[in-house]
Fold Beta-ketoacyl-[acyl-carrier-protein] synthase III.
Amino acid sequence: MYNSKIIGLGKYVPDNVVTNDDLSKIMDTNDAWITERTGIKERRWVKEGSGDTTATMGVKAAKMAIERAGISKDDIDFIVFATLSPDMYFPGPGVQVQHALGIKTVGALDVRNQCSGFIYALSVADNFIKTGMYKNILVIGSELHSHGLDKTTRGRGVSVIFGDGAGAAILTREENNKKGILSTHLHSQGEHAEELVLKAPGMGTRWVNDILADNNEDDESYFPYMNGQFVFKNAVVRFSEVIMEGLMANGLQKEAIDMLIPHQANLRIAQFIQNKFGLTNDQVFNNIQKYGNTTAASIPLALTEAWEEGKINTGDTVVLAAFGSGFTWGSAIIKW
């Protein structure tokens, strides 16, 4: 059995910066209201005509990760792509990346686990490498939320939170089982599926034909819905549980954490977890202030920036944790 380790990280965000003040011009909100509730000051939204899509942003992040890993695209054996916002209903963006990068006909898997998508994708890649099936795997988290948000006062509770962007990682074999990804831990609780949901189009609710036939501008089923307080209360509990689960599985105490990178859902959630675990500002990395919640892209974006800024070093114990729609949640414990 091998371990897997991350040898290359990459990111991409659109050039278009949308501040809280910008949003106040198109809906009834303001900088103070958004900052107090979420910690977000700005986010990136893809501009119409820019050419950026979920897949193309993933490709740009992947190219950076491949270069930093010091490998060739031809060394990649498998692709795992996490997103809730694919370019097409099907096929998924994994195959688009394979084609765009000119990679040989390797397998491409799409993961639909929303905010915890990158943790799930990382776990899949990690276990493929652990079994010896593959050597080098490209893992991507990418999202284009902005084209599907309700940018009116009605939708402000959700639309002010989300941003666009992508992050990528290259995983490879590590023969020392005390290094690399030590363990991953995944959970779900489907009874709360409709507390954070996008219902349409969907075969079991409203399909495209229904929406077109009704032509009803007041139909909210094709915009995201979130029960914010309920999600927050569950998130802080599940974050804590799954981080402790990962630490205990590896015989570690919370004092062993050198860097915690939580999914960038809400700065208040991250601060709650930081205080609960007694971590300093130097032990937790947040960039939601400038990118908003980029769902499956948030952890690889934050991980890449933390590494770029020298906040993650060889030998560090790095903890990744996420919670989101489904509900699904997970963690990864890494010895860098």
Observations:
- The chain has eleven helices and 13 strands.
- The chain has two domains: 3-174, 180-335.
